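Researcher: Next sequence.
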Amino acid sequence: MRPTRLEKPSLSRNDWGTIRSLLPYLWEFKKRVSLALVLLVMAKLASVAVPLLLKEVVDALDQPQDMLVLPVLFVVGYGVLRLCSTLFGEIRDAIFAKVTQRAIRRVAIRVFGHLHALSLRFHLERQTGGVSRDIERGSRGISFLLNFMLFNILPTLLEIGLVAIILLSNYDIWFSIIIFSTLVAYIALTLVVTERRMIFRRTMNDMDSKANTRAIDSLLNYETVKYFGNESWEAERYDEHLKKWETAAVRNQTSLAALNAGQSGIIAIGVTLLMLLASDGVVKGSMSLGDLVLVNAFMLQLYMPLHFLGFVYREIKHSLADMEKMFALLTEREEIKDKSDALDLVQGDASVRFENVNFSYESNRQILFDMSFDIPAGHNIAVVGHSGSGKSTISRLLFRFYEVTSGRILVNDQDISNITQKSLRATVGIVPQDTVLFNESIYYNIAYGRPEASCEEVFQAAKSAHIHDFIESLPEKYKTTVGERGLKLSGGEKQRVAIARAILKGPKILIFDEATSALDSRSEKAIQGELKRIAANRTTLTIAHRLSTIADADQILVMDKGRIIERGSHQELLAARGFYFHMWELQQQEEQTRAHQADDT
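Model: Next structure:
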């Protein structure tokens, strides 16, 4: 079996760039950060002073019996310094907690807001499970990075500096040479090996995101998996990425073990050399027993944090790797963005005009060709055509989910590219063909059309959509949860909720995109009358497949392959005996066939 090849993901983010991007969040709490740093310095000063007092205690006790005096002051001072070194650290952590948590919250909100600002094109291509995992890991990484970089790396470096000053001023230079040689060797090994190990961490993150994407995608399509009996197939697809994750994780762990062994070896050599040098000094009389204890205490204070520093450095590098994908999301370009001088849409009776609109999703795939039509205020224009003719693209362009390739779209004689997206979308409402609901209550999903609406207004919208009685028949009524994507409701029930939501929004422009496609004939007739009522005095664009539902439209546009090939009223198009006429004839025959089959049963 060929071994899994680990490839470094193409995504790469400069570590210092990641750290710099966090600085504005720290600077929001200048006083807290400054106070935390002051406490950090005080804690380290207390920590470094502990061995100095311990030396005095040992030297005071290492006297002939007749000269022995209990060094009470030194012992008490030793205890106070021990307490201060811990107490200052705890107070520092308490003060800095708000800084860390606020930074996590700010970054998370910024990423969340940016994701909503990205175009529909990005969201059609994204992998939900992977994106959610990237944000989750990135948020965790921020907490670790801020705490450990500020409160472990900086204090350790400060402590090394203070110890170096004490040793250089009081002892043989060989003590400093051994200590710093050990430090250099330790840090060099840690940096080199950790950098090489980052490929494994990045691969683990990449495979973890992909596996999570597969898992969520499979669970969201649970029924489809069951329909085709593909549980084993889904498990294999999931395991495909887990195998690569396992390989990377094993290599990550074994390389970590090798790194730890190397670090321990370097420290052991350094400690042994220092003890030999200090012991030799005591034997020769150039150093006291207290000096030996002092050097030993400094060694413990330096090398134990240093050993932890290796772990901290590795984890900081891991945190940066965890954060890089989250921050990469912020670099995604906002394809649809308000212009700096964009104005709110001037409200009026809401007329719509498409002027020579051409549109392509990709440069080699044009969808709409020279599209021109008007929807006068208060009129109902219908668009019909076979699947793939470009009907639904019209509604997406009107909502400005995409920018037109050429031409322009006007609402109230204002080019929608020059007005704010928020004011445009507040004016347009839609009942989509594929209604996706939030995994919340029915009330929440209807009220989403206008969250500030009163309960009575929500109930009235439900009555208008002919779903109020059904909701009242449920055990939990309006509190009933609809499930993931509304899967607890039937297609028709979801469609009615969408209609109620659009009614509650009360927009001046309404789009019905196959609004009754999920309803049976009886329900459709009941809803059609209500749709006509709410569309009265509103500018309406109806995208339909069943021609019987749009026979009374003011004008019907017939589309084929992205072009308008016929236009006119229902009667005019039938009289022309063209494309629309043949569609009408075919659908009439299908309805007659279904009617005969129903009579036979």
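Model: The mean pLDDT is 78. The CA atoms of residues 197 and 255 lie 7 Å apart.
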